[in-house]
Amino acid sequence: MTGYxxxxxxxxxxxxxxxxxxxxxxxDEQGRILLGKRADNHLWGYSGGAAEIDERAEDCAxxxxxxxxxxxxxxxxxxxxxxxxxxxxxYPNGDEVSNFEIVYLCRKWHGKPSARDGEMEALRxxxxxxxxxxxxxxxxxxxxxxxxxxxxx
Length: 153
Description:
With 153 residues, the protein is of the alpha+beta class. It has a single domain (15-134), classed as Nucleoside Triphosphate Pyrophosphohydrolase (Alpha-Beta Complex). The chain is 22% helix and 38% strand. The protein has helices at residues 3-12, 57-69, 141-150; strands spanning 17-26, 33-38, 44-45, 47-50, 72-82, 88-90, 96-110, 120-126. The strands form 2 sheets. Strands 1, 4, 5, 6 and 7 form a 5-stranded mixed beta sheet that branches. The protein has a 3-stranded antiparallel beta sheet with strand order 3-2-8, with no helix packed on it.
């Protein structure tokens, strides 16, 4: 962990932080979603993370996509805001956050998917019938459920 959140953790320890974040769900030509298996809780999720001071949400989303999945987003489309009690999360190390996450969809990117920064153990495209919400990281389950509902048959 680096940047703003790391500095705040030095001050507040594991206490709840409001975490402003941006994320990207990549959808391929077959309508499958790219998910990464997280190294911290071993559950699946799209790329995303905390914004830095004065960082634009779109730039944060693009940065996180490259850092975690090795892809460069060519286009982002706003999907939703993920917030509220369902987005509250306690990480395996005890750090607690109340997430306010802006989620984008990306259908055009370049690069080859690769787990780059150690946050993801594996990457894989999933068709909607392959996704069981119990395999998804808890704070993003409602977003993934909404994505599945919009995925083609």
